[in-house]
Amino acid sequence: MIGQRSFIFSILLAIVYILGIASAESRQLDKFQVLVKYDAELYNPGQASSGTPETTNLIKELQQRGYELSYESYESENTTLFLEGEPKYDHLVLLPSSSRTSGSQKTFNQRELLKFINTNGNILVVGDSDSFLPDAVRLLLNEIGIFPSPKGYKYVDHFNTKKGVPQITNSNIVNKHVLPELPSKGISYKGSSALLSNNKLAFPIIKGTSTSFTTNKFEDTVTEDSIWSYGEQGFLAVGFQALNNARLVWLGSGSLVNNEILDWVFQAKKVLKLQFVQHYHNDRPQFINPKTYRIKDNIFYTVGISEYVNGRLAPYKVDNDKEKLQIEFTMLDPYQRINLKPLGSGSSKGDNTLDTYIYYANFTIPDRHGIFTLDLDYKLNGLGYISDKRVVNVRHLANDEYKRSWEIPNSWFYVASASLVVVGWFFFIVNFLYISNTNIAKKTV
Amino acid sequence: MVTSKPQEKLFGVRVETIRSLLRVIIFISIAGAAISSRLFSVIRYESIIHEFDPWFNFRATKYLVTHSFYDFLNWFDDRTWYPLGRVTGGTLYPGLMVTSGVIWHILREKLALPVDIRNICVMLAPAFSGLTAIATYFLTKEMKDSNAGLLAAIFMGIAPGYISRSVAGSYDNEAISITLLMATFYFWIKAMKLGSIYFATLTALFYFYMVSAWGGYVFITNIIPLHVFVLLIMGRYSHRLYTAYSTWYALGTLASMQIPFVGFLPIRSNDHMAALGVFGLLQLFSFGFYVKSKVTGKQFRNFLVFSSIFVSFLGVSALFALTALGWIAPWTGRFYSLWDTNYAKIHIPIIASVSEHQPTAWPAFFFDTNMLIWLFPAGVYLCFQELRDEHVFIIIYSVLGSYFAGVMVRLMLTLTPIICVSAAIALSKMFDVYMNLVDVLKSNGEDNSEETGSGKKSKAKRPSTNDKLFSIVSKLAVLLSFAFYLVYFVLHCTWVTSNAYSSPSVVLASRGPDGSSSIIDDYREAYYWLRMNTPEDAKVMAWWDYGYQIGGMADRTTLVDNNTWNNTHIATVGKAMCSSEEVAYDILKKHDVDYVLVIFGGLLGYSGDDLNKFLWMVRISEGIWPEEVHERDFFSDKGLYKVDGEASKTMKDSLMYKMSYYRFTDLFGGRDGIDRVRNQAIPLSQSPKLNVLDEAFTTQNWLVRIYKVKDLDNVGRDLHSATKFDESANDMKRKRIIKKPALDLRE
Which pTM was predicted? Predict the structure, then answer.
């Protein structure tokens, strides 16, 4: 009896256990986990109105998106971004701080933050001209090539002001993928600016006007030392997308927070997916992605590209002429570089849902054997990266694939002369042995 | 020796029968000796393919037996020379692989003996050495008699010069080529002697087999025409010569053109022009003799003078014109280096870098042939004495062979057969003289046995008993001393074979201080690690010496290998090895390299490692990029090749140096590392740091070190600063003042 009971009990336990896992997973899957790091002096998550209007606005915005927000102060000594090596959060929001130091140096430093990016975490850094960025955050930004101006530096533009506050307009927007336009025609900007290295993965979203500069001396004469950035080399919002598609945005001021930017940094827009890559010989479409081609074969190469829209895959159309998809047929150097042509929407799963846009290229393999790579490398700032490499062998002509001699007009002369020699030789022998000189035949006999 | 008479009988059996029986037994013993002396390596180590090239041949053979013959012929190899690939089917000599493939099929299908293809490959060379002995026998028999033939056969069977390339496991083209060389020459001599179309066709057939098996066929292509040419100059034109040569040349050339790798070379390359020229000359000679038989002597002389001037002018100018137009390929570099031993060193470092292309040191002749080397000139001298047509061949072969063997170590191989033949002629001549005790003994009994000998000097006068004794003693003295030499020869051959030529070089043997032997199996350890731990399509970069082995043992894609067909690609690898990490990383990424493999002998004291070959890498890449790579930069200030603290900065920054000594000093517990090959100390403070590579695997004795190429940095930094960042995080220095960074303008 006891044995039976314990058996039932263990089954029950197992069921509970499974349910537990399932519920835990569903919680994980439902909502994005967001960690907001704040400074207790500037903002108190318990009181909605404690921070600046921009900060409260940002938090409200995040809550409306249904993210599960966790709050931790920079002073907190037990901040961890990882649990058993896996990231605990999907996104990280870093608010301005009143201090350069932060607690928990062991678990919250630039190295951990970089690791967070390397494990696909996204980071939104909100800067401010009147507050610090904690060292960890600043060093991380510096590492990827963003150098925000320190506390006290302000963005100044004496030519575009409204009530003494510098104005920025749509013409300041550099990257339209991230920010198509400002919410209002122009916004007043009170904040810092950043310098940007030539790291290809970091890119400006909003730049300063050509007449602007950033300085920490407002009364004295401006000197070289007191200026952080000049003109269009000062950037007010900078985006960054790592090779693993993790995103980071630095904003010079909380006033730049808007829906488009939040969508972008939290992977809600411009996230592309390569649905499929297929290539085959023009005459043999039934053999998809063969390992080997022959020189001068005609290849049909096709890809399907989708974009995540509201959590669903939708066809992604490359419409801008500048942003054409290209395929390279490379062996050390590209032998072919071809723009892919749009074919139309299609389905990647074979049903009726049109979830991908199909592009194709049709080209002839060069007359060169080797190991070639079909290299699709589509990395545009602001768009999800698409890259795909397919290695194919291009072999030489086999021994039975050359033209036969009689198919080449040039060879007729040689073929004819060779056969003439054979025929002539035959007649010569006949003549020599039997017709002309009978004496020799007799002699040898 | 007993002269044969039809009726002579011994114990009721015809002497002739006994003789053939004895000959067969001797042949079997020779073959047994030849084969068994080549088995040291199998007994010492195991049935394993040796060295470098054999690994490719083995891999190709495996491909042949797992695919069809036509697949093999059209084989495009995507596992080598990445990303260029190699048209392997069209750029190899298929004879060796096809031979073992055929043997494999026969054993498997006809005899129902499913033997592993590896064992066939390992045993092919010893098996063919037995055949070589037989072919040598026949060749020498044509020169003198069957006694000389048997001597030549046993010499050929055990001469170290030939064994060096044909021990079990040395599955190289030469393994079967020497057999074919001797067979071709035998049939050529036969054809030339008899004027037989049948034998000339056989010559052409074996020539074809030879062409299919080894690039050294050019030797035949030139020596036969030279033989004919010399005979013509000696005024020994005959219709037999005409028939033999014309048949051989026409059939042989057509047949050789069927090998894809040879293709149109026989009519386009300068190496083959001599054969064509002699062919034309023979036709002219033939025509001349025809004219001579029809006209008077004076007319003929005029005809001869004018036509010879005209024809030679025409021929030479045509040769020049065609070469200038590019119709005939100019001489290859390897050819030039045959005449000018410094040519390669100056112009083609890749050829000079191969150790077997170095000039031969003189002790090597004695080492490889022992007493034969001093019998060899005697044999040639004897050929001069008789100087029949076939003896001219021996003389030419000796002269050419000696010269070539002096220029390149590997050509010792082609000299060995003729040394064996000549020495056998000399020795057998000597035995003829000194072993003839018959008349001495006979004259002892009766004085009427004049008819037995064929005019021996000793028979002319009737010797007294004293003279007889003297003659017997002197003969015995000579015979005994030569018996001693022969025994010593066998001992020497066995010793050389066992000690010098039986190491697979894939597995090394070493002796500890206490005399105990141990096996160093680092190569296979590393290759096996690659095979088991890396993705199947991983690309491995290593210096070209190890390309075939990586392909054969690790089954991974290589960038360059021992088939050095593309100098630029080899120079690229050399450049990656000798440049700084940043430059090298770009090259590695461009070539999709996943792993880099280096051989490092510093811990073990193995002198054939990559650092000792390093200057060749520098030279070869300097040949292609003279602006970027400078050999001088790799020497210390004093102009020495140093790896210790005095090493130049370029040297210390080079990828090869870093890969070799990475973490090397860790082994020495806080003291400087000692490189046992170069006997230099690696300073602890200058232990190299690697940014673009991760150490993936190092073998037990550090002989092979494998590094993994790092991926591009996820956040777009260069790997140098990425490493710096990771290290800086450990010592958290807090900067109080945030300084404005010095940046280039953002584009």
Answer: 0.85
Confidence of residue A290 (pLDDT cuts 50, 70, 90): very high
CA torsion sign for B491, B493, B494, B495 is positive
Domain ranges of chain B: 172-330, 518-724
> Cβ distance B131 to B139 under 8 Å?
no
Which residues does chain B have with pLDDT short of 70? 1-8, 10, 328-335, 337-338, 341-346, 438-464, 729-737, 747
Q: Which residue of B has its CA nearest to A112?
A: B729
CA A432 distance to own-chain centroid = 84
| Cβ pair A332:B591 closer than 8 A | yes
Q: Does the distance separating the beta carbons of A145 and B716 come in below 8 Å?
A: yes
What residues of chain B lie within 8 A of the CB of A393, using their CB?
76, 78, 85
> What is the distance between the alpha carbons of residues B204 and B212, in angstroms, rounded to a whole number?
12
User: Are A250 and A141 in contact, with CB atoms under 8 Å apart?
Assistant: yes
Interface check B83 vs A, CB under 8 A:
yes
Please state which architecture CATH assigns to domain B518-724: 3-Layer(aba) Sandwich (3.40)
Quote the CA–CA distance of A100 and A93 in Å, as a whole number. Answer: 17
User: How is residue B190 annotated by DSSP?
Assistant: H
Residues B691 and B708 sit within 8 Å (Cβ to Cβ): no
For residue B698, the tally of other CB atoms under 10 A from its CB is 21
Selected for mutation to probe chain B from A395, A400, A422 (highest B CB count within 10 Å) is A395
